[in-house]
Amino acid sequence: MSVEGTWDLAISTPIGTMKAVLDLHTEDGVLNGTAHGSGEEVALSNVLLAGDRLTWYQSITKPLRLNLSFDMTVDGDTMTGRSKAGRLPASKVTGRRRAT
Q: Which of 13, 43, 51, 81 is deepest in the core (most CB within 10 A)?
């Protein structure tokens, strides 16, 4: 299964729904990516696809400085899962791949 492409994410947080754009690509056989949202672009780390499960980590500074972990299930052009930031409650995440 390929997860490469541009994904539009919606993250349901206690302060409202946050929108982000996820760009995933393979470079030298390794899955990499960046996330864009709230006026910043951040690199993803430890991006791993195992079957239909996609996980990654990222740090953000807006609206708060947080280290986030994502655990998603990919089904074709959609993904669902959660994002977790330390002791804060997990946030529901949904995503849809943009058509090429």
A: 81
pLDDT tens for the chain, 100 residues: list them. 699 999 999 999 888 899 999 999 999 999 999 999 888 999 999 999 999 999 999 998 877 788 999 999 999 999 999 999 888 899 999 999 999 7
CA 4/CA 12 separation, integer angstroms: 23
Coil/strand/helix, residue 79: strand
d(CA 59, CA 96): 22
DSSP 13-36: ETTEEEEEEEEEEEETTEEEEEEE
Contact 59, 68 (CB under 8 A): yes
Q: Is 51 exposed, middle or buried (0-12, 13-18, 19+ CB in 10 A)?
A: exposed
Instruction: Quote the pTM value.
Output: 0.92
Structure-block tokens of residue 52: 């239909």
